[in-house]
Amino acid sequence: MLLLLCEKISAIFIMALCRQWITDAFHYWDDIRRSKEAPLAGVCQLSGYIYSSTSPKIVRNAFIENLLPVYRQATEEELRLCQGAWKYGSFFTTCLTECRLFLPYATKKFIAAGGQVTRQHVSSFSDVSEQNFDVLFNCTGLGAKELCDDAQLVPMRGQVVKVRAPWVKLAFYGDYDTYILPGFEAVTLGGCRQYDSFNLNVCKYDSMAIKERCYGMLPSLKHAEVVREAVGLRPHRAVVRVESEILRLANGRTQKVVHNYGHGGYGVTTSPGTAKYAVKIARDLLASNSKL
Question: FAD dependent oxidoreductase domain: from which residue to which, for each copy (predicted)?
């Protein structure tokens, strides 16, 4: 009974943390969107629909329904905007982040603030401990599987098709991980979630399935030029790891580490929030000189 109670308390705590991460992340993106740097950062406002023909739960999201400026039930007329036997739907307005623009922007800001970028292969924390850092932030993504010997971390393979379709102004999500997402440079058609797959090659069968589902929703996409196809491996973990650890290294040193990895397919959605939380952990760790 005590074990079940502890597990329930732990689950409630994790859910509360996730909600806070998503809230902090949204405000971070929205602040950029409202700034004059939004075009450089690749952040803009985007509205869209999420549809389902199977369950009303699919079109609801307790984490963001009261966070986004608009999140409401779709009307009967709106359910017919896309082809398909849609029974349930929601309309929302959120922020879009184009990572191909944001990452160079963020790197430039980091360097301007006095940060330094060093490229180095790291096979263990001992490789960098000689530099006497007060604390290390471990944001190695899928690399943490080997670096931390983390068996809970697995790749979640995704594949998308980028097309040129400037007439698509709204985002559309459907069943079976189907999405049509207009961005700064192209419209992204997706997708798939293949757990524990390290395959970085474009799969023609995945491409065919993605196109079939997306063309089925918006037939006009059949005439869109395919710009490119891309594959990525998301670092998936049942629970995102954001916590501190004091490591005793092979060279006899101790090293304070704050882990921040395992975001899976929600890295853009949550990463500013988990980063804020990781910084708080680091400050508390340094202030208390905790030995854990």
Answer: 21-279
